[in-house]
Fold:
Amino acid sequence: MHILSAIAGCIVIFSILLDAFETIVLPRRIRRQFRPSSVFYRRTWIPWRRIASHINSPGRRENFLGYFGPLSLIFLLALWACGLIFGFTLLQYGGGDHVQLNGQPVTFFALIYHSGETFFTLGYGDIVPTSSLARFLAVLEAGMGFGFLGTVIGYLPTIYSSFSRREIEISMLDERAGSPSTAAELLARMGKSTQQDVLDDIFRDWERWAAEVLESHLSYPALSFFRSQHNNQSWLGALTTVLDASALVIAGVDGLRSDQAKLTFAVARHAVVDLSQVVNARYDPKFPDRLPDAQMAQLRQTLTERGVKLKEGPPFEQKLAHLRSLYEPYAQSIARNLFIMLPPWINPEKKKDNWQAGPWDRAIQARGLAVLGQKVNPIQEIDDHF
Structure:
């Protein structure tokens, strides 16, 4: 019985250390059939998402979903710590001798307490290891607990640094592609420029952003659950908008070359495919069409009115349909798993960008500002610029 306890303790400790090592020290996507952190996220996210589905208010639902990412990190670290404490308890029970100061027999539950105080280096001394093996295990656990806490302290800032870099570009997409961001708005605002370099620079920035999202979310899968600051923004929404816009340019826009758009599409598609595996997304052939014929006609008309003309004919339609088939099923699967609303190709009606909204805007607009004897919207001049 004691030998089996020691063997089980070694297995538990090895599994926890390997999982923590792959997650923190050597972050990369390693395919194994069993990984504690992956099982943890799958088993905790599903009930969390189900609870969120019963919240009718979009704002409150997003706030509730936003708690999961940070809380999951705390609970995952606690799970690792509990696993190591339990593993060393099994080892101490299987191969160590201890004496309790009050003279009572040392039970398994007493060893759990002893393991916990040793792991967190409390050292009350009410339970004392007497054998050489028990003393060695106590020193090993204390050193492991100290190293574990130090590693965690360095892990959390790395997570939030990656999250911050991701959100900066998402915030910048607001003035470039609207809120929520759409491919139609991005091309209408940037594609009408007489300089090809303007749109190419945008695509080049988003090529690098997509690569950074791919790297950071593969290294730290918990980032997939971190929500953006605004309800109508998300990392998946931004990635989908970039794919939509680059797909339109590749399919054919008069006066625009597609060289840089192809590079951006390749990296962004790579990101959405790999990240669908991270969140355990599943393909569903019954996903609704994101761009039905009526919306495509509206998209074409709106872009034409704003100086961006899409090419005509079956070659354009077939190429666009093929490009969409390369990424839309993955994006829709991720959106379903993470409870994220994908952005449309074009907003059905004019909406204010996030930068145009504020807590005092209604009062200011109701009052109006007297400019040359006329009442105007205080943000009208900026709005006309776009």
